[in-house]
Design brief:
7-stranded antiparallel sheet; alpha+beta; 210 residues; 4 helices; two-stranded antiparallel ribbon
Amino acid sequence: MGRARSADRVWQRMPQGWIEFTSFGEATPDEWLEWYLASGEGWLPDAARAAIVDGFRAGVTAFAGSDFDRAGVSITLGERPAVTFLCTNVVRVVEGTDAPSLEFHRFFPLARFGVDSTAETFTAPDGRVGTVASGTLELAGSRVITTVGEIRLSAGDGTVLVMGMCSDAAQRRELAVLTAFTLSTVQVLPAGVEPAWPEAPATGPAAGTP
């Protein structure tokens, strides 16, 4: 349960500089890494290059055989350096099955994060409503921000779950927005089908008229 069927692929928009751990299309992990590092030729320091290679290989090993359809990290430099982690799991259901979870998800952060928690709904461009819960956790002695979000697939035949984590505790709002954006963009595509940005739903009697 959760992994894409062999004829499907899970596509989503990712942050700039995204380092993938699980989904490489038809490429091998080493081929994907070579393609990724090519963009840093001429300016990426050797120490940074070595750290990326080591981190990438550790991430691929850690998620090998897992149920996650997508997992990886984004590294932000500058005035607010941070490492942001996201992982995606698409859970399919039998066609016609109703599996509402919005009500449960609003209470989830209290159980997972305690009193330092929030749960907010958001609306995707195509009108679907999802939820993102966020809170702070202690990890290896450091305070990190964590999110858990969900939204139904546009066809209604499953649910997309996204978990996020950011090393900068001050970027809680940014991580929640990124989690909601990622949830909104997930598409389960048949083999050979390219992704399309979801269209906004028609609203009002004049919608769609010249």
